[in-house]
Amino acid sequence: MRVAxxxxxxxxxxxxxxxxRASEALPDVDVRxxxxxxxxxxxxxxxxTRPDGRVRHALLWGAVxxxxxxxxxxxxxxxxxxxxxxxxxxxxxxxxxxxxCRAYDGPALAYLAAACRAPDGSYWAVQAWVxxxxxxxxxxxxxxxxxxxxxxxxxxxxxxxxxxxxxxxYGFAAQGLFGRLTYAGAPVYGFGTTKDGNPRDRYxxxxxxxxxxxxYGAGWRRESGIVTHRDTGTFCxxxxxxxxxxxxxxxxxxxxxxxxxxxxTVMGPGVTPIVQWEGAGLTAADxxxxxxxxxxxxxxxxxxxICARER
Length: 311
Description:
There is one protein chain. This protein has helices at about 10-15, 85-90, 290-300; strands at about 5, 25-30, 30-40, 45-50, 55-60, 80, 110-115, 125-130, 150-155, 160-170, 175-185, 185, 205-215, 215-225, 235-240, 260-265, 275-280, 310. A four-stranded antiparallel sheet has the order 2-9-8-7, with no helix packed on it. A four-stranded antiparallel sheet has the order 3-4-5-6. Strands 10, 11, 12 and 15 form a four-stranded antiparallel sheet that branches. The protein starts with a strand and ends with a strand. By secondary structure, it is mainly beta.
């Protein structure tokens, strides 16, 4: 299969390593979850320990599932009281919070820290994710690179669907990934980013790509972060030599990070959970699968104006 895949723009990559607006992520980072509780009013109480040792009781309510992209309507997001009820009710409701959430029986989730099923049949979950890793396989050099984020989700229906496929690119000279993120049968995408690559709206979703046992070293290393494409929810990436981004500790060209396995992770739209795909890298035995790869690429990437297969 011959595929010409446009490399990620540096602004998009920088956004993935930096601060992305995620409606389900709590503001404190490098934290440790203590508990998740839900009361009969549909409020969640997430209790966690901050890096300074202080305990915070975060009250969340007012959102479930997600909207499909619509520039005229904001994406759903939680309302939050980080004072444990003092701001909303004038008293510390966390001290007498009555948990009615039952054992979790929902779908398997990546990075799951806690989850439960509410009496109304909806699910709540907290996922602990080290999202802001440096790109291009660099070892962490800033505190945020190893900081744990807590992502809270609340949903009733099906989760977002993350489809990912491996392929040959640049005339068999490199390996790549392409895929699509959808929710409720519609593509997931946003309506723009800043010049620095940060999302302009809460519909935008960054796709994080990791490679396992590659030229970067043993184990999982973060390769890139790219934004799903407008109108299609698609994305593509090739593992080719790349120059580090401004501010990185070494500006030497990084090698192509073809791995034994690949992993793709993305926050679901709205307040739905993080979803993840993992699969094996290609081998010499896959060089004869051109027709299969071509057909899949044409089906999944239909309408994409950035990624193009060589004809």
